[in-house]
Write a structure and sequence with these properties.
By secondary structure, this protein is an all-alpha fold. Helices cover 81% and strands 0% of the residues. The chain has nine helices and no strands. The radius of gyration is 18 Å and the shape is globular.
Length: 231
């Protein structure tokens, strides 16, 4: 599921002329809305007691809420950039792209760093700091590429960028899978107690898996493009 979702976005291209697969883009959008709604729901009342992630202070909770809400914006707006019909309208495409970056990726990435550091857990810090920094770096490289009118590089960097955005979905898929793998070796109570320890691991594996899949898809697209040019 994760592989097809990310790979499908590469086929459409971010800002490229190719028609792509609108059904895949809309499917990605639906997944983003559903998963994003589930992730945001516990924080709508701003009740620290309902936080699904352990926080160390009210400041930590406030930063976490800001990170989650802005990440939701990026998660939902990203797939719309891959819809050919919407991308054909250059003005709308640019506006959506700016909202994706400056209302979603940039603030969420900036807030994600202190959120991770305040957790005090090394795995969580690694699992969130690296993708947060990578989020900001790939966004900057994508913007720089399009300003140079290098559409190919822009598409590739935005694909990597949304792969990091999609971490919110992938990590939620990986954690249950890891728990299911433990069923033959542990009881229900043991599994329930181990959930918090699996979440940081899922975060790390999530962005690693997404970036690997995105890179494979990018290289395949480039190979197809080179083959077509050679004919």
């Amino acid at each position: 599921m994760v592989r097809h979702a990310i790979a499908g976005t590469v086929g459409t291209g971010w800002g490229g002329p190719k028609a792509g697969h609108p059904a895949r883009a809309w499917c990605l959008f639906v997944v983003a809305v559903v998963v994003g709604s589930v992730l945001v729901a516990p924080y709508l009342l701003f009740d620290v007691e309902s936080s699904r992630l352990e926080v160390t202070s009210e400041l930590h909770y406030a930063l976490l809420v800001a990170h989650i809400f802005t990440a939701m914006i990026a998660l939902v707006l990203g797939p719309l950039q891959f819809v050919p019909a919407l991308r054909a309208h250059r003005y709308l495409h640019r506006r959506l792209g700016r909202c994706y970056l400056f209302l979603g990726v940039v603030p969420s990435g900036l807030v994600g760093v202190p959120v991770a550091l305040l957790s005090g857990r090394p795995v969580t810090q690694i699992g969130l700091v690296i993708p947060s920094v990578g989020w900001l770096v790939t966004a900057w490289l994508a913007v720089r590429a399009i300003r140079r009118r290098d559409v190919e590089a822009h598409r590739s960097w935005m694909t990597r960028n949304y792969a990091l955005t999609f971490l919110a979905v992938t990590s939620r898929i990986l954690v249950p899978l890891m728990l299911l793998a433990q069923i033959p070796f542990a009881g229900a109570s043991t599994l329930a107690a181990s959930v918090p320890s699996f979440i940081p691991i899922g975060q790390v594996l999530g962005w690693v898996v997404n970036l690997v899949v995105a890179e494979i898809a990018i290289q395949r697209r480039r190979a197809r493009s080179a083959s077509a040019d050679a004919r």
